[in-house]
């Protein structure tokens, strides 16, 4: 129970990789607070399941792109639970299309959720982390940030921004005993990937050295490691979890 005395705040925790991260931290005894935007039913089921199994969990409805509401929700969480020891910035959206045809609204939606959302959450948790001289932030980026992806200029830009945010923020707060790192997952089996046609999925697998898609819990285990004391000398890094794709 490495996180038995820790409070972990995970954005976008109701589905996909976020859901796996919530379960992973709960299994290690953490008090798990997680957000959702539209997946109310899934969030309620996850919260109830964790509580029924003796875990401490609470779901918050939140659009992380909303600066004011994000600050308010995290302030509420800090007041109720004392401190957020670990922040996992996982909330993300896609709205793909060729840049020449992409509407401004599609660009703004992805950047505001994936990148500004992380800014909002980091800004909200840092005062208490700095005052306690303790904390961990893990940003969920993507291999698209490193390799690029056709029809995903908005998504790739947002995820590349997270890597820049990670390295810069780490330099700002590492002297306060706050570790900031990122994870760049490759093709992971989630509901989002499930919408991709089989022929495209086979094309994805052809790019992966180990010959298979990743599982969400394989990303969650890396998040656990980076948040733990086992990663005490890792600052400002991006860990690639892609099966050898790039």
Based on secondary structure, the structural category is alpha/beta
**Percent of residues in beta strands?**
15-25%
Number of domains: 1
CATH topology: Rossmann fold
**Overall outline:** globular
CATH C-level label: Alpha Beta
N-to-C CA distance = 34 Å
Mean pLDDT: 95
Q: What's the helical proportion of residues?
A: 40-55%
Report on this structure.
The protein has helices at residues 16-27, 40-52, 67-81, 104-132, 144-147, 153-173, 191-194, 198-206, 216-227, and strands at 7-10, 31-36, 56-61, 86-89, 135-140, 178-185, 188-189, 214-215, 238-241. With 246 residues, it is an alpha/beta fold. A seven-stranded parallel sheet has the order 3-2-1-4-5-6-9, sandwiched between helices. Strands 7-8 form a two-stranded parallel sheet. The longest helix is centred in the middle third of the chain and has 29 residues, at 104-132.
């Amino acid at each position: 129970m490495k996180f038995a005395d820790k409070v972990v705040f995970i954005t976008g925790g109701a589905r996909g990789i976020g859901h796996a991260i919530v379960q992973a931290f709960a299994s290690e005894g953490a008090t798990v607070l997680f957000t959702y935007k539209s997946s109310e039913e899934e969030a309620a089921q996850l919260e109830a399941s964790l509580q029924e199994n003796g875990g401490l969990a609470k779901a918050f409805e939140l659009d992380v792109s909303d600066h004011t509401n994000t600050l308010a929700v995290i302030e509420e969480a800090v007041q109720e639970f004392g401190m957020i020891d670990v922040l996992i910035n996982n909330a993300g959206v896609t709205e793909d299309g060729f840049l020449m045809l992409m509407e401004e609204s599609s660009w703004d939606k992805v950047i505001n959720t994936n990148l500004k959302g992380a800014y909002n959450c980091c800004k909200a948790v840092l005062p208490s982390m700095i005052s306690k001289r303790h904390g961990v932030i893990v940003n969920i980026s993507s291999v698209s940030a490193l390799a690029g992806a056709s029809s995903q200029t908005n998504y790739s830009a947002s995820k590349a921004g997270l890597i820049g945010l990670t390295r810069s923020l780490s330099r700002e707060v590492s002297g306060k005993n706050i570790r900031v790192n990122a994870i760049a997952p490759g093709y992971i089996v989630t509901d989002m990937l499930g919408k991709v046609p089989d022929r495209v999925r086979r094309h994805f697998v052809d790019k992966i050295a180990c010959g298979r898609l990743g599982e969400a819990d394989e990303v969650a285990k890396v998040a656990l490691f980076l948040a733990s004391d086992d990663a005490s000398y890792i600052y400002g890094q991006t860990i690639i979890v892609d099966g050898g794709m790039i």
